[in-house]
Amino acid sequence: MAVYFDHRIDAPESSGVPSQVAWHSTHPVLAVASNHPSTGGKIDLYLQQGEFVESCHVERPHQPTVLRWHPVKPVLALGWENGEVLLLTHPTGEQTVLPSTHTACITLLEWSSSGSRLVTGDQMGVLAVWKLDARGRVQGNHLVKHEYNKSITCCIFRPALPGQDVAMLARAAVSGDESALDMFNWRKDERGAPLKMGPQEGLVFYVSTADGKVHGVDERGKSGTLLSVDGPIQKLFYLRKREALGVVTETLMLSQYTLGPEGGAQELMKVKLSSKSGQCADIVWTDNGLLITATGEQVMRLWDLERDDNYVLSLDETLGFERGEMINCVSYCPGKEILAAGTSRGHIAMWKMVVQPSSNRADTKAQWKLQTPTEIDGNVTQIQWGSSLNLLAANSLTTVTILSEHVMSAHFGQQVAAVQLTPSQLNISLLGTGEQLTLRSDMHVKGVSVTQDTVTVWSGKQVTVYELASKALRNTGSFQCESQVLAMNGENIYTVEPNRVQVRTPQGTVKQLLVFSEAEGNPFLLSVCQAYLVVGTDTAHIKVFDLTRREAKAHCNAKSLADQISNLGALRSVKCNANGNQVSILITQVNGRPDHKVYFYDVEMDTVTHFDFFTGRPASGISQPEDGERQHTQALELNGCCPVSHFWDESEPRLFVVETVPVSCESISTSPSDMVDVSVVTFFCTQEHGLLLQDCYPKPAGQQALLALDVPYYYFTCKPGETDLGPVEVSAPASSSPAQALASGGSPAAAAPSQNTHMVSRRALRDFVGLENCEKATRDAMLNFSFYLTIGDMDEAFKSIKLIKSEAVWENMARMCVKNRRLDVARVCLGNMGNARVARSLREAQAEPELEAQVAVLAMQLGMLDDAEKLYKSCQRYDLLNKFYQASGQWPQAVETAENHDRIHLRTTYYNYAKHLESMGDKSLALTFYEKSDTHRFEVPRMLQEDALSLEIYVNKMKDKNVYKWWAQYLESQSDMTSALRYYESAQDYLSLVRVHCYVGNIQKASEIANDTGNRAASYHLARQYEGHDEIRQAVHFYTRAQAYNNAIRLCKENGLDDQLMNLALLSNPEDMMEAACYYEEKGDHMDRAVALYHKAGHVSKALELAFATEQFSALQFIAEDLNENSDPALLARCSDFFIKHDQYMKAVELLLAAKKYHEALQLCVDQNLTITEELAENMTVTKESKDLSEDARKDLLERIADCCMRQGNYHLATKKYTQAGNKLKAMRALLKSGDTEKIMFFAGVSRQKEIYIMAANYLQSLDWRKNPDIMKNIIGYYTKGRAPELLAGFYEACAQVEIDDYQNYEKALGALTEAYKCFSKAKGRNPGEQEARMVDLQHKITLIKKFVQVRRLYEEDPGEAVRLCEALLEEAELDPAVRIGDAYGFLVEHHCQQGSFQVAYRKLEELQKLLPSLDVSFYVTQASLDGLQRAVGLPMGRGHLPGRADRRDSGGEEDEVEEDEALESHQGN
């Protein structure tokens, strides 16, 4: 909790009435303008506590009108009513008058964001812009001057566009950030993006005039009118998110405008703000989008322009405000998020923005919390926040008051506690006796320190010591001291000065100096525990002193924490334990935010460790608990927190406590009392085991803050006006009357009887609940037991408590076992307690797999319900948590748990809750939960049974069939048949309708209902009624509708209704069919019906026997359709003979196959020439796993099937069956006959047999392989795989001949013949002589072709030689067919034509004509050469075909085929 110290300014007597106040934005300097009717106006500056700055006094015979501080420098701009503008520098008092520009009253002074520009404006509409240097001095005359002819009212600078933060980039670059370095070095190596710093400040501004116009002035000073509104403008503001300009007129008309890049404005919205008529408004605009107005009303109005919301804040009389009190002025502090308002009765009202993690941001009003008011004298007309210290100045016309926030001081020591109530009043609690005293001081108390005998308070300038004697306070000494911190130990007072700590007496005499070097810094933190003093300095050094001797002695050397802790900004708090060997430290990081860690300095080991409350885990090595599960739970409990205060126990050096808040609430400016989810965490801290969690629980709601830890209690300060409802014991009984405190000399000025409620409360530690008044030995034993239990040393734990006999102590230790989850120790404790019931429950709980669930049972039995709830939640046993809530009467939580996590028990939970509500008499709500549990159809009528009227209303309201039925049954039991029939009909209970109608004798109506609805139960009941009345046909009819066929058959047999019997038997089950068939067989009249019923009932043999006996052939055919392989083979054979006899061969085949007579079936197909389909073939195929045929017989059957398919032309099916029989050659032959090339090639590829490869290649040669290269490749591949080089050589020869005959391509022909020769060389024929002759012939052909190819190639280089060689080639014997004679002569004719020797060419052509008379010459000689030859010789060239050429080609192809066939046969023969 915080209070505000009020300091009136120390104004000179000559000062007049204060008219204006202005704070500097960062420096704690306040400017006050005052008016005096005779002497004129004055400007004075004051410091933080109202001290007058004599050097900065300005006085003029004119009245001051405007005050504006430079945003950075301590320079104040002053505007006077005569047009003078003055710059006043603090603290030197230097005054600089701006060149005379204005002649009228100054109405406007405005600085740019960094202070490089100053805008001045007067009542005549003259506006000037001045430029200032970095030291805040004016540079020459004005830069720009505009005249608007109307009074200037407002001015705002437009914020600059965001650029790069150069300082942050520089830090990143120094730390090694490559991207930051690239941004600085982009010009050097062209890496990274250019550094865009943007303008340092916005130089565009907007000014408004009294005629309602707004003008814009750009960076070059050019002015232009943007917009115009009705009436003078009182406020201008800029909305950053919307990039819009807001305008508020004196009549409180609010408008928003978007500003275009080329100038001009477009209106977004316009609205009239509520206000009190005729009252001047105080308007404040905040950066988070709030527009706040105070217009002399009892409320303050807020408009949230970002969320388009508005609301009001009012004063609360219960906090001390008066009825009819008006709000005059308002100011907002963004640093603290506090809204302050001055009232007409001298109160300062403050609303604090309270942010809760679960709060709804839409409910904006709920986030402002009104604080207790601060009271000053007079009517507050102006109020303003300022400086980096967030000081508040309030002008009440008679004086100016400066308010500074101060966190209320509190201290605990040696069972004495002091809590500050007001700036000058403290509550003193003597916890040992329960008495309370109130201390009133004549100074503003900044701190307090208490011991068993003394209370010491200080203000930062003065220290006063009071002695506690005879239930009174006596002033024993007071002295001047400017120490901001103070500590006490016995009779010694420790204060700080630069580089030293002073040890003083209560009267202020310095006894000893504890000196710190310049490197160690200036002490500014002090803390005493037992006889040890720890000192923290501004250079992050700590040092511990031993106070056990007459003089303080250093317990260790100064330790620099800056080397041990990264990102350390400053120390926040230091505390030491009772032994002086452990120091706990809280720090603030470099960025000003509190660190999430608590650091520990081990004095003896000279080491620094930490515990991180953000992760919930200690530093590596600080804690090594044996139980990993417990460490994990500890992290879950503590993660996401930030420590705000810490204490060591005054006597137990191992016990340490921390007060933590959620990370979202970690701001230093936020008081822990305003936060939610504040936790108190207790640790054991030792050198051997590090930091071990002892307990963690939420701070009780009525507590202000943790004050101290002194076993067996935690001590808290209480919130004023609130009662703590938690398990807290107040330090003194309510009936105790506080004593009268006396000041020195018996004067009651210093102290008075306390009229306050208790300000200090205490709560027992978890391990000491019920043992608060135990003796020291028991307390020490409990502490040791808790410690050893925490570290897992069970031997030492039991040793520490072996002499304790108290059941209460054992129960407390069992409670410890719940926290530490040590069920083995708990069993020992329960045994010593003698509590058999709890021990039995714990033994039964061992069936649960989760340890937490077992511990939760123990917690419940010990009454630790909160712990049990947490344990069930931690192990996610929501079923047990649901039962726990139900057993403890927490029904809303049980329902919520079932709905969200335990839906399998949701209906059960609803039902149990309804039973509970019924037992409590809340039938209305019980009815709702019975419906949710889906048990209302029975439970609600039972519950409302005694209230028939309510029950009938509920029945009619529910319109539920089951409820209708229940109610109808109830009415029937009451003999109200008419009403019962009506409700049975609503319930659609047709059985009950028919039953009641039959009961009342209305059987006709019952028949109609049964016929219309077809309800089986109703029909059966009605059939029984008709049977009882001997109406057999009606009974049979309704038995049939009820599907009670056995009863209908029984009646038909008994009454000779044979016609209906057949139909009923067919509808009934096989037993009834057999019974009816026997009935027909015995009578002998309807044998066809008997056969049909036997067949339908599944007795096929009996049906066939009877059909054969009575020669019912149509029935036989019908029955045979249902025969299958599971039927009797003899029966199947008999039926097949029957079908053969009647020429139904296909049906006979099917029956033979069903009887597994495969050969007979196949033979029947062959004999009768039945087409074998694929389905029939599959039915004839016997699987390999079948034992009906041997493997050889199975293959023989498959081959016979395939042979039959071949004869029928079904080659694919024959191939399949040959393949299944394993005869791939026959399969290939069948496939070759089909002519399916794709399947032939596939089959050859999967068969991988030489013979099949050869067959496939031979088949492919029969195709047009000359035009399909793929076929040619496959032929070569198949011959190669089939190892038939002779056939492959023949194919190559055929290829060579095709190249010569069709394409005259002797080069390719040569290659093909070469491959053929290679193949022949690899072949191993049966006749070596024949093979040798073929190879010689092939070699001869190759030689001739090579010569002809060489001739063609040589022709390009030496035509003459080529011609000579060609003529020589013609002399070769057996040239043709290796080289066609026509090609050789054509070569010569072409040569001579090209050489112009047409006569020679003609002679060669004649020679060719003689050799081949019927040759078509154009086939060998180009048409161009023939035309040239004809022209030269003058004779027509004869055309014709060489005799026998075409025949030779054809016969050659046939010979090739014959050779291939012979080769294949010879290959197969091999």
Description:
This protein is of the alpha+beta class and 1470 residues long. Helix content is 38%, strand content 25%.
Question: What is the compact description of this entry?
Answer:
The protein has 1470 residues and is an alpha+beta fold. It contains 47 helices and 64 strands.
List the helices and strands and how they pair.
Layout: E1 2-8, E2 17-23, E3 30-36, E4 40-46, E5 52-60, E6 64-69, E7 75-80, E8 85-89, E9 95-97, E10 106-111, E11 117-122, E12 126-131, E13 144-147, E14 152-157, H1 166-174, H2 178-184, H3 186-189, E15 205-209, E16 213-217, E17 223-228, E18 233-239, E19 244-249, E20 253-259, E21 265-272, E22 282-285, E23 290-294, E24 299-304, E25 309-314, E26 327-333, E27 338-343, E28 347-353, E29 368-370, E30 374-375, E31 382-386, E32 391-395, E33 400-407, E34 410-413, E35 416-422, E36 425-430, E37 435-440, E38 447-450, E39 454-458, E40 462-469, E41 472-480, E42 486-489, E43 492-497, E44 500-504, E45 510-515, E46 523-529, E47 532-537, E48 541-546, E49 553-554, E50 559-560, E51 568-576, E52 582-589, E53 597-602, E54 607-612, E55 617-618, H4 628-638, E56 641-648, E57 655-662, E58 679-686, E59 690-698, E60 703-710, E61 713-718, E62 729-730, E63 751-753, E64 760-764, H5 776-791, H6 794-801, H7 807-820, H8 823-833, H9 836-844, H10 851-861, H11 865-874, H12 878-887, H13 891-900, H14 906-919, H15 923-932, H16 936-943, ...
Antiparallel strand pairs: 1-33, 2-3, 3-4, 4-5, 6-7, 7-8, 8-9, 10-11, 11-12, 12-13, 14-15, 15-16, 16-17, 18-19, 19-20, 20-21, 22-23, 23-24, 24-25, 26-27, 27-28, 28-29, 28-30, 31-32, 32-33, 34-35, 35-36, 36-37, 37-63, 38-39, 39-40, 40-41, 42-43, 43-44, 44-45, 46-47, 47-48, 48-49, 48-50, 51-52, ...
